[in-house]
Amino acid sequence: MSAWVRQHRQAVLCALQRLGWLNAIVIGVALALPAGGYALLESLRGVTGRLALDTQLSVFLRPEAKRAEAEALGKLLRADPRIARLRFVPRDEALKELAAVQGMAEVIEALGRNPLPDAFVVTSEPASLEALAGDLGKLAGVAHVQADAAWARRLAALAAIGRLALWLLSALLGIGLVAVTFNTIRLQILTQREEIEVSKLIGATDGFIRRPFYYLGLLQGLAGGIVALAIVGLGLGLLNYPVGELARSYGSAFRFAFLPAGDALAIVAFAGLLGWLGAQLSVNRHLRDIEPR
Amino acid sequence: MVSFSAVAKRYPGGQEALKSISFSVDTGELAFLTGRSGAGKSTLLKLIPAIERPTSGSVIVNGQNVGALKRGAVPYLRRNIGLVFQDQKLLYDRSVFDNVMLPLAFSGQASREAARRARAALDKVGLLARERSNPIQLSGGEQQRLAIARAVVNRPALLIADEPTANLDPESAARILEIFVAFNQVGVTVLLATHDQSLIQRHRGKLLRLEAGRLA
Fold first, then answer.
1. Does residue A280 contact residue A217 with C-beta atoms inside 8 Å?
2. What is the pTM of this model?
3. B166 burial type by CB count under 10 A (0-12 exposed, 13-18 middle, 19+ buried)
4. CATH class, range B2-80+156-215
5. Would you tell me which of A105, A182, B175, B192 could form a disulfide with A278, CB atoms 3.0–4.6 Å apart?
6. β-strands A142-147, B81-84: how paired?
7. CB contact under 8 A, A10 and B105
8. pLDDT tens digits, residue range A177-209?
9. Which of A3, A205, A292 sits opposite B51 (nearest CB)?
10. Which of A202, A205, A292 lies nearest to residue B102, judging by beta carbons?
């Protein structure tokens, strides 16, 4: 084993001895807020992502409209240059599609007849969508035009605001993490003042003295990140029981998912990095003051 | 080994601790630095491991101009000098053995070799049996011997001691001095500051008398 490896191993062991779990918990609780929020948003994104965010309109015909009327309307629509794609959804097919949606099969069975009209699904440019919807609504035989994407887009916008808020929260708590580490290292340097002074007197390099503090900051950050993940995991586990019950009552199997492995790893690594940064700042600020006299 | 030429040291605030000091201590020599308290003995000794820097003049240790040494080079200079302080500067949060291991940790030696050297150093000062004790449990003389063990564990070519026998009873003081003399006999250059004239009369060595910042 080379002297370099030995010195680093020694610094890590030294840092491990001084690692305070209370600090790791403080950091963990702080990080659990944005990490948990992120996990919730990611789970919801899974839901909103499945919804069509395409620029589609559903054009529903009057229920009593005959197939011939529908075909005539189809010809008319096909002639409209604003319409990029057109799909005819006969009422039987619509019913089949609806029956495939979780929980709806029972509802349809209870109805006993097909309540759905024939419909067209129209795809167009986003800019012309609203004007198109207005025009289509005026056509004979059309009962209702629905912009499918509107509410899904609203939800996506809300999620984006939520994500932005999370980023701000993360930035704030990241600064908090650096500050907590800064202070921990400062106190640690103060309590070891004598040892540092003696070490400098008898030939320790600055690197040797600094190393354990860097590792302490890094390990404390990593430990905080792990605590945060544990809190998020526990919190989601607790939430998932009532959420699962609720979702089941709607015939859904929705559950909040734990963070993807990559994201979880990134949170721990980021916490470690911030801890190291806090240690670096603190050591630079406080170690110079200790010079043997 | 150590050579001062026209060295002066003025502390911030104007106090002139040393005025134009010139002397040299050759390799393998035993030198005593005497003088009353406040004569500048501690200041002179602190210039050698670059704890203080001279205001003017040059301090040459082992061919290196210590006054001009870069900050980063100072630790390597100190590793080759064994330092013994009046107040020992031991660490009371660890055992006698771990105190001696401290300087060995800096250079990243293999732990088995380091432990062997630490025990050898403790053996030389007669403290091997106390390796597991805490320094606080040792007597004043024993604590000073422990400080010597820590100073010599890196096998320095130069050993410097500032009043190592102050606050000790005559018997302990004599024993401490014998240890230094023994190291000198195996080739270590020793520079020892003391105000106790009676102690050094029994030993042959170069005598440097400091009076009010000048060599008499």
1. yes
2. 0.74
3. middle
4. alpha beta
5. A182
6. unpaired
7. yes
8. 899 889 989 998 998 888 999 999 988 888 889
9. A292
10. A202
